[in-house]
Design goal:
Its EC number is 2.7.11.1. GO terms for molecular function: protein serine/threonine kinase activity. With 535 residues, the chain is of the alpha+beta class. The protein contains eleven helices and 25 strands. It has three domains: 102 residues, Phosphorylase Kinase, domain 1 (2-Layer Sandwich); 201 residues, Transferase(Phosphotransferase), domain 1, CATH 1.10.510.10; 164 residues, no CATH class. Strand 3 and strand 4 form a beta hairpin. Helix 4 runs antiparallel to helix 9. The chain is globular.
């Protein structure tokens, strides 16, 4: 690994790391540029939660490396449009951790989608069929996923699902890497037979899929409890409550979410049930892959200055990894938990009454500057709507500050329909809680908190000139070569000590075909970089 001409890290003399997409205890996922083929890719940098692991526990470090290589090999064996494609693997040999180079899926994860609210049954059924297709292809190759959950389902810009993160996949010919008595997975979505230490089979992946669809339509997890141990006990002993919002999806959930794996229908039957669920409401006028829930109607007409949100999509994935010990069913079970999608109801709050603009510095000059230094006149973009306006951003940040007391952030994303932030925990420079803000819902806490990684540092937003946002959007329309932008959003790029890069505002434009371009600007609106679509 070295530094390229831009000063960014370059992996294997080929993959230039551009920005962090997500991270957790098992490392970091980066957006990168393939310098040879001139395309964007995702690069998974594997790092253990404890950087000293190789020194005091070399055997665990060796097994981690083997697990990562196994993920790449498992994925490479499964050629399917609903399975993320592996392009390349960078392996430095014993004593190192590999880098996995994958296709970049631009539409965010299913967990991001569900953070905005439950799905309609038909929408969930269509996503479920895509994930099921991926599982059937994997099962045919002898690969079980073992960790099907919303965070591991990515969505293409048109909404089609892509199954990823086969890092804990069990391959029939190579199961010895899972230590005896160990269960690997996420407790919320783990089938009962895997909780008890059994190997499980394809039917266990079907349980996880059905539980994910239950959460998608009901908006809560039926077996999640206050602790990991209590959740595992509920999975083993509690019946799944009948769904209330599933409609035509109900038969799938009721037939698959049964404790005896032999009593569950096979994948072909599940596919037929999902197809029937999708077709049962086709006459309602829904699209093939609806991307957002219908906008709630306010009980009374909004005031003239009320900001009305428009649905948007959140990108990025939040990946976490913790290790917990659980004593269950009379024996000791060590559980390696890879992520936790959390209960979206945790910490939820009603609409905030604070919608006044946030005070702070605001320049009256709304011009911006291109990288060449030539000034660009101020402009108003048709993309500057809802939350993606100076007033919308200030209102959201004011409401979040009033609700949480937080003033420093590790991440900020602004869509027309909502704003999401990673707000730093008081007294910590690394830990954060995640929140979303919508005008009709107020500030809501997400279960997807975490820890900053990849060299990112927290930042205060008090000196940001939000009045420059419309001009930046107008410049993006002009320069990014995205003919019909359908998904504009603003993403804060925090300062990064690894790359020695300053804080920046990044404007993304994407069309319905996945063509994406972006530009970076300083907090005061001076453009520092323009990357057109296809560049």
């Amino acid at each position: 690994m070295n530094d390229g001409e831009t000063g960014r890290r370059v992996v294997d003399d080929r993959f230039e790391l551009e920005s962090r997409l997500g991270g957790g205890g098992m490392g970091t996922v980066w957006r990168a540029r393939d310098l040879l083929l001139h395309r964007s890719v995702a690069v998974k940098e594997v790092r253990p939660a404890d950087p000293d692991l190789a020194e005091y526990d070399p055997e665990s470090a060796r097994m981690l490396r083997e697990r990562v290589l196994r993920e790449a090999r498992a994925l490479a064996r499964v050629q399917h449009p609903n399975v993320v494609t592996i392009h390349h693997i960078v392996d430095g040999g014993a004593g190192t951790y590999p880098w996995i180079v994958m296709e970049l899926v631009e539409g965010g994860s299913l967990a991001d989608r569900l953070a905005r609210g439950p799905m309609r049954p038909a929408e969930a059924a269509r996503v479920g069929r895509g994930v099921l297709d991926a599982l059937r292809a994997a099962h045919a190759m002898g690969v079980q996923h073992r960790d099907v959950k919303p965070a591991n389902v990515l969505l293409r810009p048109d909404g089609r699902p892509v199954l990823t993160d086969f890092g804990i996949a069990a391959i029939r010919e190579s199961t010895a890497l899972t230590a005896t008595g160990s269960i690997i997975g996420t407790p919320d979505y783990m089938a009962p037979e895997r909780v008890t230490g059994g190997e499980g089979g394809p039917a266990a992946d079907l349980w996880s899929l059905a539980m994910m669809l239950y959460v998608a339509v009901e908006g809560h997890h039926p077996l999640r409890r206050g602790t990991t141990l209590a959740t595992l006990a509920a999975v083993l002993h509690d019946d799944v409550p009948p769904p209330k919002q599933a409609g035509p999806l109900t038969p799938v959930l009721e037939r698959v979410l049964v404790r005896d794996p032999a009593a569950r229908p096979d994948a072909q039957t599940v596919d037929a049930l999902l197809a029937a669920a999708a077709e049962a409401v086709e006459d309602s006028g829904t699209t093939s892959y609806p991307l957002a829930p219908p906008r709630p109607l306010p009980p009374t007409p909004p005031a003239p200055d009320t900001v009305v949100p428009r649905p948007g999509r959140r990108r990025g994935a939040v990946i976490a990894s913790v290790v917990v010990g659980a004593v269950l069913a009379g024996g000791a079970t060590w559980l390696a938990v890879s992520g936790d999608d959390g209960n979206k109801d945790s910490g939820a709050s009603g609409p905030s009454s604070h919608t006044t603009p946030q005070t702070g510095s605001a320049s009256t000059d709304t011009s911006t500057t291109e990288p060449s230094g030539s000034p660009v006149p101020s402009a108003t973009s048709k993309l500057a709507t809802g939350m993606l306006t100076p007033q919308g951003i200030r209102s959201a940040l004011k409401a979040i500050e009033d609700k949480t007391g937080r003033t420093t952030f590790g991440d900020l994303k602004v869509y027309p329909g909502y704003v999401s932030v990673d707000a730093m925990v008081p007294g910590s420079e690394t830990r954060y809680d995640s929140y979303t803000y919508r005008t009709w819902q107020g500030v809501e806490k997400s279960p997807l908190g975490g820890t900053l990684s990849g060299g990112n540092e927290p930042v205060s937003l008090k000196d940001f000139d939000w009045d420059k946002v419309p001009a930046l959007l107008a410049l993006a329309e002009k320069k990014l070569k995205v003919e019909k932008p359908a998904d504009p959003y603003l993403w804060l790029q925090p300062p990064n000590s690894t790359f020695d890069t300053p804080v920046a505002l990044r404007i993304y434009l994407t069309d319905n075909y996945g063509e994406t371009g972006y530009l970076d600007a300083t907090p005061q609106g001076k453009v520092t970089k323009v990357v057109p679509a296809g560049a």
